[in-house]
Fold:
Amino acid sequence: MHGDSVIADAPILQIRNLRLEFHDHGHPEVAVEDLSLTLHRGEILGVVGESGSGKSMTALAIAGLLNRHALDCGGEILFDGVDLLHCGRSTLRHYQGDEISMIFQEPMTSLDPLQRIGMQVEEALRIHHKELSAAERKEAAIRAMGAAGLAEPEQVYGMYPHELSGGMRQRVMIAAATVSRPQILIADEPTTALDVTTQAQIIALLRQINAEDGTAIVFISHDLSLVRQLCHRVIVMRRGVAVEMGTSDEVFLNPRHAYTQSLVDAIPKVVL
Amino acid sequence: MRYVLKKTATTLATLLVVSLLLFVAFQLISGDPATHILGTGATPERLAALRAELGLDQPLPARYLMWLTAFARGDAGVSYVYHQSVSSLLSAKVPVTFALAAMSFVLMCAIGLPMGIACAKHAGSPIDRAVMVANQIIMAIPPFFAGILISWAFGMGLHLFTPGGYVSYETSVPRFLGYLVFPAVAIALPRAAQLAKLLRGSLLEEAGKNYARTAYSRGNNTNGVLYGHLLKNAFLPALTFLGMSLGTMLAGSLVVERVFNIPGISSILLASIGNRDYPVVLATVMLIAVFIIFVNLLVDILYKVLDPRIDEE
Structure:
């Protein structure tokens, strides 16, 4: 659907035989089982599945946000020659927010309610680019906010989260995630909590970020029609296992797995 | 700004209501001051003359206004027992009690806040568990008993201070403050334990919220998330507790002053209650009420400073 030329051969992130098992409630629970995937430079990869399919766990594992104490993990997540699954916390932090950023499902609660928007958008720069002056950080933050589609970013810069709508907050989250121009943006159901119009705008924004900055995006969703609109390639997950993988067109036009077929069939069709 | 003005107006209204209630209550319980002063054997003429002199022949609203305006100027009337002005009786003692309460408050924060943060940071560790158990015990110790224990251990046992060796702030401010440290610890400890527990719980609750995860996703380390985001949010519930604590500290001071033999308002307040010296009691209670009401105003203003979500309306 989208030009295949975008998908260069250069892999930027490789997951090999990922296994995530939680044991925080006494009995172990396998969230992800033997997942392997490759994310290429400049690619938008969709991860689709119902609740509990392990897609969000995979996203959090890439972003390094899983609580390692409550987790048994196997396999590896390779980025920049480093296994993000087993490397030290400080190595992980070195990439978090700078090379790998994440936006979440809940824009209403994902921002610090007591901190001004500008401070939150700049935070990744404060942590990773101490060489920048305060003025340079502010400039970069306002640029990122403008690029994320916030009108009058200078004003929003000084506002607090409660003064913004859900759609605006998600744009703030996107600005904060992209301010340091990361190589990978992980978007975990970023539009689920938003109304349909805002949802379409956020999808367009993600596509624009991908096209203009070449940021690779891992787009987690249960909404197949969104995934089809946005993603170059798709992985279908069910109960922690990848059941199908391929380009969007392959998966949607010729689903090979019965589960994928049932998901595709479940997309509401407009009957004219 | 409108918020501050509104809160100040509410505070002044509260003060008026409280002062009216106190005044009326003391009018009801105190009976006839003239009889108090002159004794029951006085002639009706002398009683009437004194009543006129004290303004007691005026109607209640007029007396209330006279008392209130005088109190606002620092004139709280004349003691029935000591026959001198209440303000001169209290002026040397009020600073002692307030200094003790203030020092207790500072100590409570200095002990409770870092302890709460440390326990939250290492939640579930053996140290955290040990501190929480110790806290539970300390919380149950009333200040007067802590005072006796401290007097015994640090005063009689370790000779770190001389029990009863109070030094007036007029003699030496450092030695005055030095003497207050141990009583202040006795008052502060139970509240510090509560503060630590409250802050720990509040921090852990904030740590589970989505914005904490966002902060981690930007590359913050634990301290970055804790001090950059969680602490301010977790401090809001603690602020109410701190405000209430100032009142508790004052009450604690009144008790602990007796244990450590400190000449604050406790001695004269208790003596005056025993002597039915109502002008002194009324003035002292009113002072404490004014203090607590203004602390509440301060807490409200601090909330507004810390939390932008508090509505201006």
Observations:
- DSSP finds 13 helices and no strands in chain B.
- Chain B touches chain A through 21 residues (CB under 8 Å).
- Chain B has a mean pLDDT of 89.
- The CA atoms of residues 81 and 263 of chain B lie 18 Å apart.
